[in-house]
Amino acid sequence: MFIEERYQKIVELLKEKNSVRVSDLTEIFDVSESTIRRDLQDMEEKNMLKRTHGGAVSLSSRNFEPSFKEKETSRHSDKVRIAKVAAKLVGDGDSIIIDSGTTTLELAKALNAKNITVITNSIDIATILWEKEDMEIILTGGTLRKNTRSMVGQLSENSLRNFKVDKVFLGTNGITLKDGLTTPNLTEAITKRTMMESGDKVYVLSDPSKFGVVNFAVIENLKQIDAIITTDEVEKQILDEFQNFGVRIITS
Q1: Does the pLDDT value for residue 74 go beyond 80?
Q2: Rounded to a whole number, what is the distance in angstroms from the first to the last CA of the chain?
Q3: Cα 135 from Cα 113, distance rounded (Å)
Q4: Which of 21, 121, 162, 171 falls between 20 and 30 A from 208, CA-CA?
Q5: By the 8 A CB rule, do 211 and 91 touch?
Q6: What percent of the chain has pLDDT over 90?
Q7: Is the pLDDT of residue 40 over 80?
């Protein structure tokens, strides 16, 4: 395959997925990592994409926000694995906040602790949990965003400020060492930040595709979280960089 053909295919992949990883591209094109990294560098210089740790993102990605339904089917097996690890961190009697999202929805399904209080801004998560025994469920209220099916805004934030919980389980669209946790929507970012302020411990649930991605609105820097829960598919170089920075990574 000619270089130009690789470039075109990478552009097409970015249109479909919004981000690509070096490891995936090496398998797709059957070339070395150094070749792919040179391709991405050249494409960035030509203003075709933006390079990230371990891959690249579309130039329009900072404001791009896939729908809930699109995210629900993307990397579903990863989300189930991450959720099972996160569920083990919830002990009997805990009070927790679960952020709206497709990975956190899997956490709700995996929860089996007894006598816990769950605060959430997700109708979907509340619907899952109301069938479980020994759980008190509190919905934050707020403005319902159709794209993410989350309740956000001032009403949601005011509700969250009434509580101090043991653990917060948060979703995110992007994670980098420099910019921290990011998401495409500012209102979502502020609501997520308020959740973090309400918890003794904060865990971020993220599949590997979120690493190296920067979105429009900053949630918080990585010094404010206790751990990122992901899968062992994250590249070792990225894991080392995050751990050297002092970020705890829990892999499933």
Answers
A1: no
A2: 36
A3: 9
A4: 121
A5: no
A6: 67
A7: yes
CA distance 218 to 172: 10
Q: How far apart are CA 42 and CA 226, in angstroms?
A: 37
Beta strand pairing status for 116-120 and 227-230? Answer: unpaired
Q: DSSP letters along 205-226, please?
A: E--GGGBT---SEEEE-GGG-S
Q: CB-based contacts of 144: which residues, under 8 Å, 6+ apart? A: 123, 150, 151
Of the listed ranges 62-71, 192-201, 228-237, the least confidently predicted one is: 62-71
pTM of the model: 0.77
Collapsing DSSP to helix, strand or coil, 32 comes out as coil
φ/ψ of residue 66, rounded to 5:
-65, 155
pLDDT-derived band at 55, boundaries 50, 70, 90: confident
Domain 68-251, CATH 3.40.50.1360 — does that match?
yes
* CATH 1.10.10, applies to 3-57: yes
Q: Where are the domains of the chain?
A: 3-57, 68-251
